[in-house]
Design goal:
By secondary structure, the protein is α/β, with parallel strands linked by helices. Helices cover 31% and strands 30% of the residues. The chain is globular, with a radius of gyration of 16 Å.
Length: 198
């Protein structure tokens, strides 16, 4: 965790994290899936955003009358500084290690965007288990996957084994209700999955 934060989410990397991303196909698809789901599910009153990153959903969640509380979990101090630049009266921020520390708060919806491909299979499954155990109803997560063994590419990204991730999802008491596939030029399939508690 420390090495990944130092290499990719400190200093100028944190300050410029959203620069160039806001208008790319993947970012827009992630934003659309999350916003559309919350708009059409009034039973989402509490949200866990892990990792919080720059608080990209902050302005949207602030305007959603049925969302009352947002819990943001982030380990990078510099990303927390960026997250606080978005005014969010509903947001409570926690500096938190999602691999080794248990989450205490519970929420109707958890969002795990751009996290599960930053770590190897063991760490990623711990993150997923940790978040799903405090998720009451729904989860939206992104994943780069294939049916083979995990593979590390581009010095940063892990392509996860889909069968292993589905096993964790099922054992945690959730089912996949939708998948938004996004085609890009990298190995593996990048998708945004929506889960619902069984």
């Amino acid at each position: 965790m420390e090495e990944i934060i130092r290499k990719h989410y400190t200093g100028n990397q944190a300050k410029n994290y959203e620069f160039g991303r806001r208008n790319n196909k993947k970012w827009l698809a992630e934003q659309t899936v999350v916003e559309d789901f919350i708009l059409h599910n009034n039973d989402v009153n509490t949200v866990i955003d892990a990792p919080l990153g720059t608080n990209r959903y902050g302005l949207f969640l602030e305007k959603c009358p049925h969302v009352k509380k947002v819990y943001g979990y982030e380990y990078s101090d510099d990303m927390i500084i960026e997250a606080k630049k978005t005014v969010s009266t509903k947001l409570e921020i926690f500096k938190h290690d999602l691999i080794n520390e248990q989450i205490q708060e519970r929420a109707d919806l958890s969002i795990i965007m751009r996290m599960l491909n930053l770590f190897d299979e063991d760490a990623s499954t711990k993150i997923l288990e940790n978040i799903l155990q405090v998720t009451e109803k729904y989860c939206i997560l992104s994943l780069r996957y294939w049916s083979q063994s995990p593979k590390f590419i581009e010095g940063k990204i892990t392509i996860q084994n889909l069968h292993k991730m589905k096993d964790i999802i099922n054992k945690s008491g959730f089912g996949i209700i939708s998948e938004k596939m996004i085609n890009d030029n990298r190995e593996g399939q990048y998708s945004i999955f929506t889960l619902e508690k069984k």
